[in-house]
Amino acid sequence: MRNLILPGLAALLAAACSSGPRPAEIAVIPQPARIVESEGFVKIGPDNVRTAVDTAMSNPEGYRLRVGDGGAEIVGGSDAGVFYGLQTLEQLRDSAGRAPQVTIEDAPRFRWRGMHLDVSRHFFPKEFVKRYLDILAYHKINTFHWHLTDGIGWRLQIDKYPLLTQKAAWRKVKDVKSPWIGLELSDESRRDSADTYGGYYTKDDVREIVAYARERHITVIPEIEMPGHSEAATFAYPEYACPTARPGSGIYCPGREETFGFLEGIIDEVVELFPDSPYIHIGGDEVGKEQWSACPLCQKRKREQGLKDEHELQSYFVHRMEEYINSKGKAMIGFDEILEGGLAPNATVMSWTGFEGGIKAANAGHDVVMVPLDYVYFDHYQGQNPCEPQAWGGFNGIRRVYSFDPVPPGIASENEHYVLGGQANIWTENIRTPEHVEYMLLPRLAALSEVLWTDTTARNWKRFEHKLDRQLDRYAAKGWNYAESAFTPYISDQHFGGDGSLTVQLATELDGYPVHYTLDGSVPTQESAVYTDSVIIREPATLTAVTFRNGKPAGCVLTVPGLLNRATRAKVSYATPYNAAYTGGGDTALVDNRYAFKRGDDKAWQGFEGTDMDVTLDLGSVQSLSGTGLRFLQHIASTSVMLPTRLTVWTSTDGKDFTVAADRAIEPNDDSEVLIEPFDVRFADSVEARYVRVKAANAGVLPEGHPRAGAPAWIFTDEIVVY
Ligand SMILES: [Zn+2]
Questions:
Q1: Domains in the chain, CATH or no CATH each
Q2: Is 73 a catalytic residue?
Q3: pLDDT tens digit string along 6-46?
Q4: With 90 as the cut, is the pLDDT of residue 507 above it?
Q5: Which of 50, 389, 585, 723 has its CA 20 to 30 A from that of 486?
Q6: Distance, CA 460 to ligand 1 centroid (Å)?
């Protein structure tokens, strides 16, 4: 951990420690292009802020802001520029309403500064969407990508096709924790029953939201998914799916002419509802094309159009929809899969699977919006502590978000202007409440806003990290539910010394805050040891660590049990092999004192597919043993990883004759949340032994009701502790 001392910030740090009011230092996010500070402060109120528009300004979203003796003056290139100047002024003011005397000249780097929200997997009420827009506006985001339709919920009133909302805006809920699992849509008539979940936006709701966004200079881009992710729509109107597909199969049939009439009818009403949006987003991602291969109408269409495969059939579909959307005066945008089979001539590509699609499209002369999932998917984890709510996929901490550059190498310099900008996406499979959406959004949105607004030459992580401290206070004052994940310590490195000691290094995403730790398992206080550059552990320990901010714990407590236990670095032999894709690091994985995170894709897990885990540890000498501790992952919602059904432990002095020391059945847990379940397996009496055999019984073939019924269960484990 490095202490954060930057030139010019020392006074601020000193002030932050005093009990007096903080000075109104320049801590604006996103960072303005140019700041010239003067001496003194001016009280700013409604009476001494003057605004004007200067259309001669080169960027209509740019502004000049001057705080002087007479108050504040903002000149914008347009009303939007004035609005952004006012956002900056709000951040300049301290709690007493004073702003420093300053001159700021500012304009955004990108014109597409976007934020997305999936309201299909979970529905969010109109009032929350407006609050979400407030948060975006505060960060100078100007584009709201509204993901209105998907497989498990249609959220937009369409007069011509009323069944979309009558039949496909609600679903039956089996598991209140995960109403997105399974597709069992429910009729609107059941909307008020306890086992029914859902909702939709009326046309009046949409007009109200679009107007609210307009006042904040945010354009709402509607997304109507096609041809895939359309289970809800084809459930309501099966006549637009392939005749050979099962009901609610999720892909429109481009072999049927009437499918295009249906979608055009929807587009007509969407165009009318979103007059400000130059774009209609058609999704276009993750289209499984097997149904088209099996459909005689699709095959006929292929033959008639001379299309060589299903990719070209998709291209035909997208191309036709683009022509229609263009005829309505709108441009089409879609995810990078719309490149498959040849891109429609005027389409804009939203590159999500990585940068490659965007690079290809930009170099071919198409507009591009960069949304690479490894940087700006905010449904991914932002912390590595088990306290984090269940998230999707990988880890996109705030540092990673800040490192995102929408113009990657590979785009020829003369094509860079095709990159309109970038955005972050929030898919809501695991996000059920508005509070949870805010938690995933903040503070990562602060990093994103600086990436999209501020020129790379003015970007500086250290300065951003420091400004973020103020930004979190602003969030708190507004009542926004931000995450403190970036304060939570994690183990950044660990290694064994030749003397048998273990050296552990801790890190946090945000530096400059004291981390306190203990080695006896107790929760650290400010009186506990302060972490400096490493912790050297020489005897059995449970390491706990927590960060303090403003004298209070911030983020979660890191707890690492079983360091230097009797099994640490023991020789392990395997009666059943671990899977080659999930080695956890190999034969030492279960005794290396390294723990995995609660993600199915964390390579620190050791996996056993369809078999038991059955290992024998050689502790090197006969010792007096009292039990073992193990942990297993279960992740029903999106993997086949299940808890074992039974744990059995044998001991032996010679490695030949083994005696059962403990044996217990494990109650199945059908919780759909991802969970790491610890098991403390105590022996009835202490046992003298050198060898410990541990067997965890595999759950076998996944039962009916499991999302992957019929597949073999996996066991995931990461460490065996022996007392
Ligand atoms: Zn078809």
A1: 32-106 (3.30.379.10), 112-478 (3.20.20.80), 486-563 (2.60.40), 571-722 (2.60.120.260)
A2: no
A3: 333 333 333 333 333 334 468 999 999 999 999 999 999 98
A4: yes
A5: 585
A6: 52
